Amino acid sequence: MEQEYQIEYVEDPEESAWGIIGRGLSAYNRQCAGENKFQHLCYVLRAADGEIAGGILCEVYWEWLYVDLLWIEDELRGLGYGHRLLTRAEEEARQHGAKNVYLDTFSFQAPEFYKQHGYQVFGELRDFPPGHQRYFFTKHL
Hints:
By secondary structure, this protein is of the alpha+beta class. The chain is built from 3 helices and 6 strands; from the N terminus they run H-E-E-E-H-E-H-E-E.
């Protein structure tokens, strides 16, 4: 007899749900594409008082760097911290075998910043969010 499965919405998923789904997908990916050599990269911009004033969160896998989040407090933008964080992440990713990088950003965030660092647009979602665009960038390391 076949077991019936129900789909249910989980408002606050526990780590167990994320873990089960993530491990399942990771196992399938390894089966199809080989070991990904996954590595988290994180650098923070820390103030003298210990508070985090910015940072970059990335992942390296299958010889690619994915820049997930890059943020600098408003009053510190334009002072070179973003450049230093991005450059540091790219350098470490190379040490982990990354040959390319990809990321996405919105039109109201930092597309020009990434263009100045040699990134090229490979995709765009118009009107996401309404009145703006979401850009997808890549670069050879």
